[in-house]
Amino acid sequence: xxxxxxxxxxxxxxxxxxxxxxxxxxxxxxxxxxxxxxxxxxxxxxxxxxxxxxxxxxxxxxxxxxxxxxxxxxxxxxxxxxxxxxx
Amino acid sequence: xxxxxxxxxxxxxxxxxxxxxxxxxxxxxxxxxxxxxxxxxxxxxxxxxxxxxxxxxxxxxxxxxxxxxxxxxxxxxxxxxxxxxxx
Lengths: 87, 87
Prior knowledge:
2 copies of one chain form a homodimer.
Chain A (H helix, E strand, L loop, with lengths): L2 E8 L6 H9 L8 E14 L5 H15 L5 E9 L6
């Protein structure tokens, strides 16, 4: 069944303590070269049947109204996952 | 600065109560046509300088050892975000 992937990230001006903690911990694993980490969310919506423009609109509405908090988060992308088999 | 995006999802056989709650709530928003929702994580690693194969290897190591729990999660992708300006 097709899957729509919704990606949500904290807005750039919002502090992200989880990302910060990861960024600080990476050097302890010997991993340098990264100046920052931001943690967001990724949703996979399984679609019943075909992905029509109407279904994509529903997914965009879900992303804006349920999957993200518009005060602190941006919806980075709403896209069909073509060949993914992770859902 | 270039950004490497790491995507992590719960393994298919692992229960995902957050995703389930979202899937159950979508019809209340008038959004039908979705049979399931899975919630995972999305990380943006900001790279200092150029993205070399070595930096990508570091990102893959971070994804496997710090950004995901291999018992319950799969690393779905580790990729360079070409034109993204969200970090």
